Structure to design on (1471 residues):
């Protein structure tokens, strides 16, 4: 008789994986793939953020399942990051020098910080799982306070910034750099300075960190606003880290971004109320589709709304072939400039020349470097509050449809003001998504966010 | 050599012919009474024998017939007509690891005879089972030639483990019905209750189908050849609009787009519409469906000598599909041989080989986008679009209306190159020794070797091909299965006691290894998948797995005076696929029966020829888990361009957590049965009641999202199936006009008893783009399998109900839903069960009528009480794009009596300024799309003519039969899709009953001829 013991030939178990650099990097690739899916991921994932004022279709009735898919996706990614970190710490990696080990850990921590940063902004405090957490499948843990989550993010990004290289070789150009870690850390600090933590001491840290990135010079603005999202600029000079697609790994069909008149499916469009306030100029034409063949959207059959051009900088042939290799930014240099401007102003109590210069670099580019009365440059004459407001508005315009606006509305507590039609639906509870129903059901240690029901526990 | 003249004078030659109810009886035994002198009849039932002058009586016997004694007298020619044994007490039935007298059975077994299958021009064995056995549900999930069927014996026990019955062909487990030539089958037994199936232990829970193939009989070689040719057509077209109606409907929809002061511009001018009225436009269903032919050749030679019997048969089936560019071909060859090596040692060998080649453009949920799925897009494409453009290329749908994002239906059907090949070899041999008079040892060894080689290429005329600049896949797979069973049988009669004891040691080993290549970016479209080196991107994959099952089993059959019967069996299975801590499973069964008709007081009534009461109990199992399912796993395939290059980077991820405690799903079944035969066997009835509880169900226990894993496979959950089966058989007419009829009906009720910590498990039975983005079918505690959940659709608000409608923010002509909790809002709280995919009962009625040389066979079968989610309608009836003729019946102020929502004017809606309280945001989980799937179908009908022997013998043929046959000729149903027999999502039984772009079944008309010589 043959033995009943099993010895699988075509796969390994986690205990005997993560033994080489390539295996660890394969886990990183997977962790990004966990997030970059069409459904419940970031490839087609504006659904959870539909209640910002940019995406058409929101109404501030936040569904009980809002963000469920992203919660799962981020924790899948975290599983594929914590395990290699743990294996590296245990010394499972063989024949790899210390510098490489440090660099691998730095990448893992950059990615882990990014995942927790998304989670903590959507849900508040979350279960904080690290490489030290054993046996995840049987795990019952409470939510860690948001502060602790931020502490891990800051520590991970600090380590990443110290150990990531300034640049990668061309064949690895999309990997996170030291400046990307610093830029992300600046964004984390800025968020910590605003709601809900409101620790204003972080404004200066955010400004300092952003300034380091600006002075370092690894990244810069793409000169022409029309080319910010061109395929040639997918990995720089402005893009610092992104969700990537390639010929071998296409993004979701481009038809989702395009209106029916262009042969698209029109899944995502801009809220007309928001679009009407968007200042005319080169940037509007570059980032939005407001007309097609000379016909404005108000005359289109079907959904009469502007669409998003950022992810449609592909050839007609590719479009007709359902091929999109567009990236969606996670962090780009324009963001860093605006982080600096906002943080500097708030830290110093008034707009400094440096703050004004930083934001004006973005505005000038948006206007094609000519004066545009619809979107004039900012000056040091503005009050602290007026400047702050103007920078937030500039983020609104520049970073539209990049998974950024919702978080600005949350950290600046602006939700109630952005759409007068929704005011009746607004409550303070809307600043956090609900903790997924399934997780609450299976783990009685988890607490629901205010304003959402808690299911029966089992 | 020879007899001496002196002896010869004392002998005489007697010859003649033995016939039964159905004609000549080949292999009948004729013995001179009181001697060993005898012979058997040849293939035509003829015999010749030399009997001593003093011989007075012949004894003639044949299995299933009453033996007859015939006085010889002075005759030299004696034709004998045997009478069928009314209660067929002596009939033998194949059971697991042996045979048993039918009268000794204590379990529930349905038998199907070869004649029932071969009288029909059946292409596939699984289809032949439909409607013929009580408790056996056969669902043709799609209509493609060589397509899939789902066979369920007494409901479904498992959720994730599969519910397919175990197929055992000539004792070899794990057989495949697709590759089997129906003509090779001698009989089929379906083992249903635990008394019959527990002997198969961990593989028996879903019932067992035992197939015995034909064997040659002693006599001169008999050659039979049969040929049939058929034509197939689309049974039923979807009711879509002609071009003019469609153009007007599109215009009507555009005309309502008046919101925000918009002034609509019609898509079609009046002149264009008049033109469409003349031409009628394109009927896309006519474009992609065709009249398809079918041909089937069968040739077999069989015969035997004193010590050797053989059968060699070959078949060739060539079936075109009704969807262009689809077909199925099967070559099959079988050689069965057995021989008596000595008086006490026998040897047998069966070899069967087949090659199947099937191809069909993708349909249903077939892994490619439905935008390029011909079945999906054909009825949806605008009839206003031409097939080809002015340059003779496939046309591209004009934008702005209709299904403009989809691919040309004809291109979607014609251009994919799909070539699926399966080669199967089955080798099965035995040596049988009579160790003692009553003790037999049978050593069997068998192997199934199956090789898959599938190639597909999407060229630059297909959607997939354009998207990936040519896209191809090559998959090969080698599967081998070995089985060795060593069966010791002790069979002894002690006066009124009869005992059969069986002991078996068995080992099974399966190995599967496969590899696949996915290639994109081809430099040369013409060579495509045949030149993988020319592809810019190639991703390879491979896999391998093994499974071992070691078993020990035993069974005792005991009967006392043929009245009181007892069967008990026990099996121990050790399987590699289970957790370290639970490798072995144990499966007992016991059953008793009382042959009441053997009792004097009943025999004396002279009414009842057979009356048997049966009761059984037993435990069976389901392997339910793939190899290595208990181990934690790192999987490849989560690739991502992490480095930012054009090639993607390998991604490895943690796919599952370990569970060393995993074990069998076990089903405990009790069965009560009654067999009755009256009127000397002309009327028979069998009733069975069963109750099955399956526990330790392997379910994916949901894990909290923060674990990073969706679930872990665990033994949780329990389901129950109970049901009643009734089979009636009879010979209402036995004279010159004969009529044999069999009717069966069965009802199964199932219920999910426990899902562990979950109250429900739900499934997304759809693809994107159909507005069914949330899970639609649920398994919920206390509910049956196949439940569909959504909103109850109540039709449309009528003009008189404007005020009521306004409370929900709706206008007359808008859809109306049940506000379950009456809170004034239609939201997720109003979701309820809106359908169930499983029938309340299924039935089959088969008939065989003969009159002189004519014979009429027909089978009527159907289901009652099942629902189908007709998902395709969602977009066929979508305003602005839909082509369904139902849209012509949409609500208008003048057409109130309809359930099709109207096209509501945008400005009117704006001015009404209502607050929408229907918060379902386009979710299409609506009872509007749920339809009754009940049907009654004339499944097959065959009229045949047996050419009189006198005539056929003139051309040296012993038998000639010609026939005409129809399949799916008449179907009574209210279901509006292509066919009520459909299931697009067959990942498990919780998702059956959704109709999405599935290949429609054909109506088939066949002409055939059988000849023997």
């Amino acid at each position: 008789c043959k033995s009943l013991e099993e010895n699988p030939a075509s796969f390994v178990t986690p205990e005997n994986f993560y033994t080489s650099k390539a295996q660890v990097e394969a886990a990183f690739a997977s962790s990004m793939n966990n997030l970059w899916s069409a459904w419940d991921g970031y490839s087609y994932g504006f659904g959870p953020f539909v209640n910002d004022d940019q995406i058409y279709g929101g109404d501030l009735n936040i569904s009980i399942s809002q963000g469920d898919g992203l919660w799962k996706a981020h924790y899948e990614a975290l599983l594929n990051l914590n395990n290699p970190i743990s294996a590296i710490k245990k010394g499972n990696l063989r024949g790899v020098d210390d510098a490489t080990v440090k660099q691998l850990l730095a990448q893992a921590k950059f990615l882990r910080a990014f995942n927790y940063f998304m989670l903590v902004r959507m849900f508040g405090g979350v279960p904080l799982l690290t490489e030290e957490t054993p046996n995840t499948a049987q795990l019952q843990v409470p939510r860690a306070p948001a502060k602790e989550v931020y502490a891990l993010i800051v520590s991970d990004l600090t380590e990443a910034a110290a150990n990531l290289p300034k640049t990668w070789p061309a064949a690895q150009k999309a990997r996170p750099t030291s400046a990307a870690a610093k830029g992300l850390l600046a964004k984390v600090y800025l968020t910590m300075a605003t709601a809900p933590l409101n620790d204003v001491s972080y404004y200066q840290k955010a400004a300092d960190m952003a300034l380091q990135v600006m002075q370092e010079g690894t990244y810069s603005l793409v000169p022409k606003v029309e080319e910010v999202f061109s395929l040639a600029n997918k990995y720089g000079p402005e893009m610092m880290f992104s969700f990537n697609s390639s010929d071998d790994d296409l993004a979701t069909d481009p038809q989702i971004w395009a209106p029916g008149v262009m042969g698209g499916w029109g899944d995502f469009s801009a809220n007309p109320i928001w679009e009407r306030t968007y200042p005319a100029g080169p940037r509007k034409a570059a980032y939005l589709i407001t007309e097609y063949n000379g016909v404005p959207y108000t005359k289109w059959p079907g959904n009469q709304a502007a669409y998003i051009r950022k992810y449609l900088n592909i050839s007609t042939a590719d479009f007709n072939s359902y091929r999109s290799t567009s990236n969606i930014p996670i962090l780009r240099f324009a963001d860093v400039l605006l982080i600096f401007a906002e943080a500097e102003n708030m830290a110093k109590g008034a707009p400094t020349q440096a703050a004004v210069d930083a934001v004006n670099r973005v505005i000038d580019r948006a206007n094609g470097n000519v004066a545009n009365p619809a979107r004039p440059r900012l000056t040091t004459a503005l009050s602290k509050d007026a400047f702050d407001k103007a920078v937030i508005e500039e983020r609104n315009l520049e970073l539209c449809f990049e998974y950024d606006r919702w978080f600005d509305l949350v950290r600046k507590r602006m939700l109630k003001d952005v759409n007068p039609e929704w005011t009746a639906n607004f409550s303070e509870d809307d600043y956090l998504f609900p903790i997924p129903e399934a997780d609450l059901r299976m783990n009685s240690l988890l607490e629901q966010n205010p304003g959402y029901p808690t299911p029966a526990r089992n | 050599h020879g007899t001496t003249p002196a002896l010869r004078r004392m002998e005489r030659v007697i010859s003649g012919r033995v016939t039964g109810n159905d004609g000549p009886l080949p292999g009948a035994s004729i013995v001179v009474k009181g001697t060993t002198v005898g012979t058997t009849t040849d293939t035509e039932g003829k015999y010749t024998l030399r009997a001593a002058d003093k011989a007075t009586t012949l004894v003639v016997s044949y299995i299933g017939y009453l033996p007859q004694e015939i006085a010889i007298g002075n005759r030299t020619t004696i034709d004998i007509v045997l009478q069928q044994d009314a209660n067929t007490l002596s009939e033998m039935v194949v059971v697991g690891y042996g045979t048993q007298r039918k009268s000794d059975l204590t379990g529930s077994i349905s038998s199907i005879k070869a004649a029932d299958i071969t009288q029909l021009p059946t292409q596939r064995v699984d289809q032949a089972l439909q409607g013929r056995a009580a408790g056996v549900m056969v669902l043709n999930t799609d209509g493609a030639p060589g397509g899939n069927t789902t066979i369920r014996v007494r409901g479904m026990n498992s959720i994730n483990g599969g519910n397919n019955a175990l197929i055992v062909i000539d004792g070899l487990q794990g057989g495949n019905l697709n590759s089997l030539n129906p003509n090779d089958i001698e009989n089929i037994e379906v083992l249903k209750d635990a008394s019959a199936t527990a002997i198969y232990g961990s593989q028996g829970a879903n019932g067992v189908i035992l197939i015995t193939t034909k064997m040659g009989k002693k006599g001169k070689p008999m050659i039979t050849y049969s040929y049939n040719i058929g034509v197939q057509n689309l049974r039923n077209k979807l009711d879509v609009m002609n071009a003019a109606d469609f153009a007007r409907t599109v215009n009507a929809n555009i005309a309502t787009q008046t919101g925000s002061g918009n002034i609509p511009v019609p898509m079609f001018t009046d002149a264009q519409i008049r033109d469409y009225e003349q031409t009628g436009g394109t009927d896309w269903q006519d474009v992609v469906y065709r009249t398809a032919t079918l041909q089937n050749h069968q040739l077999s030679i069989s015969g035997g000598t004193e010590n050797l019997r053989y059968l060699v048969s070959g078949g060739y089936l060539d079936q075109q599909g009704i969807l262009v560019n689809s077909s199925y071909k099967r070559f099959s060859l079988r050689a069965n041989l057995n021989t008596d090596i000595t008086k006490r040692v026998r040897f047998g060998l069966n070899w069967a080989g087949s090659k199947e080649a099937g191809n069909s453009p993708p349909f249903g949920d077939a892994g490619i986008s439905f935008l390029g799925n011909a079945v999906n897009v054909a009825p949806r494409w605008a009839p206003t679009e031409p097939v080809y453009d002015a340059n003779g290329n496939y046309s591209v749908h004009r934008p702005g209306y209709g299904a403009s994002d989809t691919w040309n239906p004809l291109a979607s059907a014609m251009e994919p190159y799909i070539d699926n090949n399966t080669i199967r070899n089955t080798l099965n041999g035995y040596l049988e020794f009579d160790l003692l008079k009553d003790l037999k040892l049978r050593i069997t060894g068998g192997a199934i070797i199956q090789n898959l080689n599938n190639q597909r290429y999407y060229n630059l005329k297909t959607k997939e091909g354009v998207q990936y600049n040519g896209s191809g896949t090559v998959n090969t797979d080698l599967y081998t299965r070995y089985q060795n069973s060593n069966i010791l049988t002790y069979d002894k009669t002690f006066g009124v006691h009869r005992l059969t004891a069986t002991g078996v040691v068995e080992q099974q080993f399966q190995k599967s290894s496969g590899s696949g290549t996915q290639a994109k970016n081809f430099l040369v479209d013409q060579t495509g998948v045949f030149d993988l080196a020319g592809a810019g991107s190639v991703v390879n994959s491979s896999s391998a797995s093994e499974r071992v099952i070691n078993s020990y089993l035993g069974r005792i059959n005991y009967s006392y005076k043929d009245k009181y019967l007892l069967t008990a069996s026990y099996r121990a299975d050790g399987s590699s696929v289970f957790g370290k801590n639970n490798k072995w499973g144990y499966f007992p069964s016991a059953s008793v029966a009382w042959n009441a008709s053997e009792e004097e007081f009943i025999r004396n009534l002279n009414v009842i020829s057979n009356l048997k009461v049966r009761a059984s109990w037993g435990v069976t199992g389901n392997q339910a888990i793939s190899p290595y399912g208990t181990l934690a796993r790192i999987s490849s395939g989560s690739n991502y361009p992490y480095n930012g290059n054009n090639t993607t980077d390998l991604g490895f991820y943690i796919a599952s957590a370990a569970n060393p405690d995993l074990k069998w799903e076990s089903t405990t079944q009790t069965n009560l049965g009654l067999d009755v035969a009256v009127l000397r066997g002309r009327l028979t009835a069998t009733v069975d009641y069963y109750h099955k509880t399956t526990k330790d169900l392997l379910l994916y226990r949901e894990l909290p999202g923060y674990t990073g894993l969706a679930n872990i496979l665990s033994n949780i959950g329990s389901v129950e199936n109970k049901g009643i089966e009734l089979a009636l058989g009879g010979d209402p007419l036995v004279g010159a006009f004969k009529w044999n009829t069999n009717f069966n009906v069965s009802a199964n009720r199932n219920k999910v008893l426990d899902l562990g910590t979950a109250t429900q498990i739900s499934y997304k039975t759809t693809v994107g783009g159909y507005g069914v983005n949330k899970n639609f079918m649920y398994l919920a505690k206390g509910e049956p399998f196949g439940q569909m959940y959504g909103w109850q659709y109540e039709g449309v608000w009528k003009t008189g109900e404007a005020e009521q409608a306004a409370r929900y923010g709706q206008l007359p002509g808008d859809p109306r839903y049940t506000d379950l909790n009456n809170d004034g809002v239609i939201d997720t709280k109003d979701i309820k069960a809106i359908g169930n995919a499983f029938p309340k009962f299924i039935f089959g009625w088969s008939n065989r009528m003969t009159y002189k040389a004519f014979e009429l066979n027909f089978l009527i079968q159907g289901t009652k009480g099942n629902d189908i989610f007709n998902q395709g309608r969602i977009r066929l009836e979508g305003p602005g794009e839909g082509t369904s003729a139902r849209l012509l019946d949409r609500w208008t102020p003048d057409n109130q009596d309809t359930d099709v929502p109207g096209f509501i004017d945008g400005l009117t809606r704006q001015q009404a300024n209502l607050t929408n309280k229907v918060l379902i945001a386009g979710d299409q989980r609506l009872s509007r799309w749920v339809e009754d799937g009940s049907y009654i179908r004339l499944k097959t009908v065959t009229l045949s003519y047996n050419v009189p022997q006198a005539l056929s013998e003139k051309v040296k043929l012993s038998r000639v039969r010609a026939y005409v046959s129809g399949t799916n000729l008449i179907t009574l149903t209210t279901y509006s899709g292509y066919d009520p027999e459909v299931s697009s999502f067959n990942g498990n039984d919780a998702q059956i009953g959704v109709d999405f772009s599935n290949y429609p079944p054909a109506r088939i008309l066949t002409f055939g001829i059988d000849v023997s010589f």
Observations:
- Residues 16-164 of chain A form a domain with the Serine Threonine Protein Phosphatase 5, Tetratricopeptide repeat fold (CATH 1.25.40.890).
- The beta strands of chain A are 239-243, 288-289, 291-292, 295-296, 307-308, 328-332.
- The first strand of chain A starts at residue 239 and ends at 243.
